[in-house]
From TrEMBL:
<dbReference type="Pfam" id="PF02687">
    <property type="entry name" value="FtsX"/>
</dbReference>
<comment type="similarity">
    <text>Belongs to the ABC-4 integral membrane protein family. FtsX subfamily.</text>
</comment>
<keyword id="KW-1133">Transmembrane helix</keyword>
<keyword id="KW-1003">Cell membrane</keyword>
<feature type="transmembrane region" description="Helical">
    <location>
        <begin position="177"/>
        <end position="201"/>
    </location>
</feature>
<comment type="function">
    <text>Part of the ABC transporter FtsEX involved in cellular division.</text>
</comment>
<dbReference type="InterPro" id="IPR003838">
    <property type="entry name" value="ABC3_permease_C"/>
</dbReference>
<dbReference type="InterPro" id="IPR040690">
    <property type="entry name" value="FtsX_ECD"/>
</dbReference>
<protein>
    <recommendedName>
        <fullName>Cell division protein FtsX</fullName>
    </recommendedName>
</protein>
<keyword id="KW-0812">Transmembrane</keyword>
<dbReference type="GO" id="GO:0051301">
    <property type="term" value="P:cell division"/>
</dbReference>
<feature type="domain" description="ABC3 transporter permease C-terminal">
    <location>
        <begin position="185"/>
        <end position="298"/>
    </location>
</feature>
<keyword id="KW-0131">Cell cycle</keyword>
<dbReference type="Pfam" id="PF18075">
    <property type="entry name" value="FtsX_ECD"/>
</dbReference>
<feature type="transmembrane region" description="Helical">
    <location>
        <begin position="229"/>
        <end position="255"/>
    </location>
</feature>
<dbReference type="GO" id="GO:0005886">
    <property type="term" value="C:plasma membrane"/>
</dbReference>
<keyword id="KW-0132">Cell division</keyword>
Length: 304
């Protein structure tokens, strides 16, 4: 097969169908940008889970005068009950699971509440004795929170034992939903790109049907006739993939690192290195889909 001739035919096809090629580039660019964003969101969620799950604490809330439940029937947790909870946390049963823990009194809880809700009218109606005294526990393995719940949950003076990871799970569920939405939109756009590439190749082949007929008469192989059309689709898709890769890198550099990184310094975000990992994936996806759809179009509809 003469490579120069094949490449020349592919270039001619791109020039003849310039408007359709631009459409393929744009659709591929948009669809693969969504794909890249979805992949980065999954990487971000995984990274945040690694950071925040390790920081998640178990809160052992002690009874107040207004606490419900049988374990709080006696009202405010007494000093003896608080000491019993502390002794249980230091016992050989729980100590192997605990990294560290500390006690938060009414006054400390009130000070933290005032700081957290500063400017909120609710701070005017809450008093220190209404807020739970709490043991905050850091576990060696956060997945062992159930051990504390079973051991401390029914002790006198304990209102409830709460694993903070359940609040994180709600946040990550929302982020996952957004990620899956991006994946769904990307899938629809990829289908549109595949159909558009197939249509472009069909029109290109139709406009050159006399040339194809002549090539058949002189004994050109099916592979020789098909290859220029496949290259047209792959070239347009690769150009769109490169634009999508540039957009993904730009989003990470200017928005994620430049804006979010400065505004939300309490957590870590994906960086340009992560984006550069995604770029080759986009190039491969774009090239494979284009080659598949172009080859199918020329084989199925023109029966080459």
């Amino acid at each position: 097969m003469r490579i120069g001739l094949v490449l020349g035919e592919a270039a001619n096809g791109l020039r003849r169908n310039a408007s359709m090629v631009v459409s393929v580039v744009l659709v591929t660019f948009i669809s693969l940008t969504f794909v890249g964003v979805a992949v980065l969101m999954q990487m971000q969620i995984s990274q945040m889970k690694n950071v925040w799950y390790d920081k998640a604490q178990v809160a052992v809330y002690l009874c107040t005068d207004i606490s419900p439940g049988e374990s709080c029937a006696g009202g405010e947790a007494t000093d003896d009950q608080i000491a019993a909870v502390k002794a249980q946390l230091e016992s050989p049963v729980l100590a192997p699971f605990i990294d560290k823990f500390y006690f938060e009194s009414h006054d400390e809880a009130y000070a933290n509440f005032q700081k957290q809700f500063e400017g909120n009218p609710v701070t005017e109606y809450v008093t220190a004795d209404q807020l739970n005294q709490t043991f905050w526990v850091n576990l060696i393995d956060p997945s062992n929170a159930a051990v504390l719940s079973e051991s401390l949950g029914t002790m006198p003076g304990v209102e409830t034992v709460t694993d903070q990871r359940r609040y994180l799970d709600q946040i990550f569920s929302v982020l996952n939903a957004a990620s899956y939405t991006a994946i769904g939109i990307a899938a629809l756009m990829l289908i549109a790109a595949v159909l558009l590439i197939a249509t472009t190749i069909r029109l290109s082949a139709f406009s050159r049907r006399r040339e194809i007929g002549i090539m058949r008469l002189v004994g050109a192989s099916n592979r020789f006739i098909q290859t220029p059309f496949v290259l047209e689709g792959v070239f347009a898709a690769l150009l769109g993939s490169l634009l999508a890769g540039g957009a993904v890198v730009g989003i990470v550099h200017f928005f994620v690192q430049g804006y979010l990184g400065g505004a939300m310094q309490f957590t870590s975000f994906v960086d340009v290195k992560d984006a550069l990992i995604v770029v080759p994936i986009l190039l491969v996806v774009g090239a494979v889909l284009a080659a598949f759809s172009a080859n199918f179009a020329i084989s199925r509809y023109l029966k080459v």
